[in-house]
Automatic annotation (TrEMBL):
Residues 15-142, 160-292 form the EamA domain. This is DMT family transporter. The keyword Membrane applies. The lineage of its organism: Archaea, Methanobacteriati, Methanobacteriota, Stenosarchaea group, Halobacteria. The keyword Nucleus does not apply. Pfam families: EamA.
Length: 297
């Protein structure tokens, strides 16, 4: 698939396809009855198996670019990705799709702060303004959902929203930890190592929690596979590829389409109509993320 991308597909078109693909993730998670950690495990594991043939054919020699430090960084990056998936998937059980996807997409805010703290990148006035606006939107959204009640916002919206923010934070750790490594290593070997570490982390958590890893019916396996092919292969893997060809700020801003797409799909497929507070707060959050991601420090 990545060979076709490199030869024929404009990066902006590939990025648009990726945004549509990741927008389906929340719906597929909601349709599944599997525990969130198990769901995340099989999504990542099946995506890894789909990527592996590319890694061990065309990109076999690229693994020589990894040294011991790179393997450690990739492992930590995969662990952060595992926590991101587990927290995000679990959040969907407790809050609305619109709130969960919007909040989990706030990772550019944490990336901006983390880059300033650890990579000595200047935040700048526009980024600081964007962060402040987005935080205000998060507070308004969470407070509004709490007051709206379970019929609109989910059974435990504050808890679910908190998990979504944790997912956003760990996504930022994933981005920051892998930034330097991604500049030196080809996309397929990179994602294979990171996805493998992510899958092993999720497997360890599932075993520690004594979660059932087998006994799922055909419907669940179809959902596992759909998560791997859609949001996994055509979503996040293509986004990683696009980072070679499109500015990271463009990618970050483009991903703001995920909350919009997921909310529309939730309305059409789950009959989940977001409350006015969720819509208003979500728009403020998206505005803040846009300012943060698009700003030049």
């Amino acid at each position: 698939m990545l060979d076709v991308l490199e030869a024929r597909t404009p990066p902006t078109v590939a990025l648009a396809v990726a945004v549509v693909a990741v927008s389906t993730s929340a719906i597929l998670v909601r349709w599944s009855d599997a525990p969130s950690v198990v769901l995340a495990l099989y999504r990542v594991l099946l995506t890894t198996l789909l990527v592996a043939p590319f890694a061990f054919t065309r990109y076999r020699g690229a693994f020589s670019a990894f040294d011991r430090r790179d393997v450690l960084v990739a492992t930590l990056t995969g662990a952060a990705l595992a926590i991101h998936f587990a927290a995000y998937f679990e959040s969907l059980a407790w809050t609305s799709v619109a709130a969960s996807v919007t909040l989990v997409q706030s990772q550019p805010l944490f990336v901006a702060v983390g880059a300033a703290a650890f990579l000595h990148e200047r935040i700048g006035t526009r980024k600081a303004l964007g962060i402040a606006v987005a935080i205000a939107g998060m507070v308004a959204m969470s407070a509004g959902e709490f007051l709206a009640g379970a019929a609109v916002a989910g059974s435990r919206p504050l808890y679910g929203n908190g998990l979504a923010v944790l997912g956003a934070f760990m996504a930022a750790v994933y981005v920051l930890a892998g930034r330097s490594l991604r500049q030196r290593v080809a996309v397929v070997p990179y994602v294979l190592v990171v996805y493998t570490a992510c899958a092993l982390t999720l497997f360890a958590v599932a075993v520690a929690q004594d979660l059932p890893l087998t006994g799922y019916g055909r419907r669940e396996w179809l959902l596992f596979f759909a998560l791997a092919v859609g949001p996994g292969l055509f979503g996040h893997t293509v986004i990683n590829w696009a980072l070679e060809h499109v500015e990271s700020s463009v990618v970050s801003v483009s991903l703001l389409g995920e909350p919009v797409g997921a909310t529309i799909l939730a309305l059409l497929l789950l009959s989940e109509t977001p409350g006015s507070a969720t819509v208003a707060g979500g728009l403020v959050v998206l505005a803040g993320i846009y300012v943060t991601a698009a700003a030049r420090a």
